[in-house]
Every structure is written in C-alpha cells, then in structure tokens.
Specification:
Radius of gyration: 39 Å
Distance between the termini: 100 Å
Helix content: 55-70%
CATH architecture of the largest domain: Orthogonal Bundle
Oligomer: single chain
CATH topology of the largest domain: Endonuclease III, domain 1
CATH superfamily of the largest domain: Hypothetical protein, domain 2
Number of helices: 13
Number of strands: 0
CATH class of the largest domain: Mainly Alpha
C-alpha cells in the first residue's frame, strides 16, 4: 500500500510539473505572438475647431485707412489741423505745433488763440517781450522755454528768410527747437506737400498693428516713408492722432469700439476694453 501511494504521489507531482511547464510555454508563446504582431500606426486626432472665432484677415492698409477715414468725422480732430484749416498760414501752423508739444489739445488751442490775437506774423511777434508771450501761452508745458524759442525762430525768419516760413524739411529743421514732427507737420498742413508726421500716437499704433516694427518715432517715420502708399501721407497723422486719442489709447484701448479690430493683432496690448 505504501509503495502504490508513493508511486501515485510521484505521478501527481510529475503531472503538476508538466502542467506548469506547459503553462510557461504557452505564456512564452503568447508573449512572442504579441511581440511579433505589427504595431498599429497611431492616427492623429483632427484639430479641435474653436466655434465662434473667425480667422483674422491679413492686414490691409487700404481697408484700414478707408475704415478710419469713414469714422474720423465722429472724433475730435487734432488742434493743429483745425488751426491749419482755419488760417491756411504756415506761420500759425509752426507756432501752434511748437505749443502743442507735451501739451493737451484743449490747452494748445486756447493758448494759440490768445497768442495770435497779439501777433500773427514773425515781425509782429518780435514786438512782444518774452514776458508777454509767456503770459499769453501759459499754461502750456514748458511755457517759458517755448516763449524764448518762438522769439528766436521769429528773429531767424525775419533776419534770414524775409519773414517767411520755409517749405522744405531741411530748412525747417535748421530752426531752433524744430524737430522732425514739427517740420513734417508744417510741410503737410502749412504747404500741402507730402510728408509723414510721426508723433507718439502714430508710432504706437503703427507698431501695434505690426505694420512697422520700430523703436522710436524717427525710425517709424523712415519705415513709413518706405512702406506707406503716398496717397495716405497727408492725413495719416490726422487720422491716427484722432484715433489714438479716442479709441486706440496707450493703456486699455477700446478694442470693442474699434473699426479695424479684425485687422489688428494687438501687439503689446496687455489689457483692453
């Protein structure tokens, strides 16, 4: 009885080992089969569509200027432009532009009217003292310095140019206190000749659109001279200054009211309304 029981135990143990070995072989075969199967290529998921967002059209200066010109009558025109339209006098354009530097338009307009009541020509201006000019133009920014600058310019005009304001950029730049912005404004508004006046609004907005990529107003002027169609040179400053004062402000511009918002990439804009 003991023999048979031992033999039976051996048979059972042998069968168990065989079963384990078979399982191992089956597992190995299964792994090999899985390894040998070719991997299915992953198909990229289609891009998610953002509902309600329309692609921005490519920037088109002709479309942008057309829209801004159409909207401009609802904005306040720059004060120097108004003075140019009312007087058609290059001298008044020159002096009012000097007064406008670092000064709000409403202050510039009132100061210009007071000063031109006293004198409307270089010869008449030289009959005034520096104190009289200061009192007339106060409270424009740097009014004491501007009073002396105005009298120096008038002296140069009378002594060298027969009392006439030059219509060439280089001649205007030779006058004391006259920079490129003022010179271009006199050329365009005083004489109706092509020029590009670049102030802080023109510089900021042209770069905000990505139309130019420049670091300062002078570089912006040179870039615009190369790129901007000449048909827009005369009123580019007028339109962008009014636009910049009303809609496209330096901080938190009114993008929700902007007539060219769909063309604008809002470069450098961190917050808008």
């Amino acid at each position: 009885m003991g023999k048979y029981q031992t033999a039976a135990t051996k048979v059972v143990a042998t069968l168990q080992l065989t079963e384990v070995s078979s399982r191992r072989r089956m597992t190995t075969v299964t792994i090999l089969e899985q390894t040998a199967r070719p991997k299915r290529a992953r198909v990229a998921a289609p891009p998610k569509m953002r509902l309600g967002r329309v692609p921005r059209p490519r920037f088109d200066i002709h479309q942008v200027m057309a829209r801004l010109r159409a909207a401009a009558p609802t904005w306040n025109a720059p004060v120097v432009t108004l003075i140019a339209k009312q007087s058609s006098d290059p001298f008044q354009v020159l002096i009012s532009c000097l007064l406008s530097l670092r000064t709000r338009d409403e202050t510039t307009g009132a100061a210009s009217r007071r000063l031109f009541k006293l004198a409307r020509s270089p010869e008449a201006m030289l009959q005034l003292s520096a104190k009289q000019v200061e009192q007339a133009i106060y409270p424009v920014g740097f009014y004491r310095i501007k009073a002396r600058t105005i009298l120096d310019i008038c002296h140069t005009l009378v002594a060298r140019l027969n009392g006439r304001v030059p219509d060439e950029l280089d001649a205007l730049l030779s006058l004391k206190g006259v920079g490129r912005k003022t010179a271009n404004l006199v050329v365009t508004k005083g004489f109706g000749k092509p020029g590009i006046c670049v102030d802080t609004h023109v510089h900021r907005i042209s770069n905000r659109w990505g139309y130019v990529r420049t670091k300062n107003p002078e570089a912006t002027e040179m870039a615009l001279r190369r790129k901007l169609p000449q048909q827009y040179w005369l009123d580019y400053n007028d339109v962008l200054v009014a636009f910049g004062q009303t809609i496209c402000m330096p901080i938190s511009p009114w993008c929700s009211r902007c007539p060219v918002a769909d063309y604008c990439p809002r470069i450098g804009v961190e917050r808008h309304r």
